[in-house]
Design goal:
- There is one protein chain.
- Helix content is 20%, strand content 61%.
- The protein has one helix and ten strands, in the order H-E-E-E-E-E-E-E-E-E-E.
- About 12% of the residues have low confidence.
- It has a single domain, classed as Quinohemoprotein amine dehydrogenase alpha subunit, domain 2 (Lipocalin, Beta Barrel), CATH 2.40.128.
- It is α+β, with helices and mostly antiparallel strands.
- Strands 1, 2, 3, 4, 5, 6, 7, 8, 9 and 10 form a ten-stranded antiparallel β-sheet that branches.
């Protein structure tokens, strides 16, 4: 009886881990994004990867390449923080987007307010 409980616990743990990994697979890949900054259309590339169950990302745009922090995906929503360095100060920009298949849509929110962002993989 005791062994049956251990086997059931191990199965539940394995199932929970595989569900989490499958969820992260929904966002792993290269995303071509698009948003407006004033009159200019910005088209950065977001590369999302997974290692050991943790997500990481690289943002490549007209101002260079950076690694977003706190990359997470839950309930169909991808979130992370971009840190922009300008001269002697840093500005944080929050990214939040709903992922639906190979498309995403959401917002970039910073000191100047929220900007719609869309992308496809």
């Amino acid at each position: 009886m005791r062994n049956l409980g251990r086997v059931a616990f191990a199965c539940l743990l394995l199932l929970a881990t595989s569900v989490h990994a499958a969820g992260n697979a929904d966002v792993v890949g290269v995303w071509n994004l698009e948003f407006k900054e004033g009159d200019e259309t910005i088209r950065p590339t977001l590369t999302v990867s997974e290692s050991g169950g943790a997500l990481a990302a690289t943002w490549k745009g007209p101002r260079g390449t950076t690694e977003p922090k706190d990359v997470r995906y839950a309930d169909g929503v991808l979130r992370f923080t971009l840190v922009r360095k300008v001269l002697f100060s840093e500005t944080e920009i929050q990214f939040e987007a709903k992922v639906e298949g190979d498309r995403l849509s959401g917002t970039l929110t910073g000191p100047r307010g929220a900007t719609p962002v869309a992308g496809k993989r």
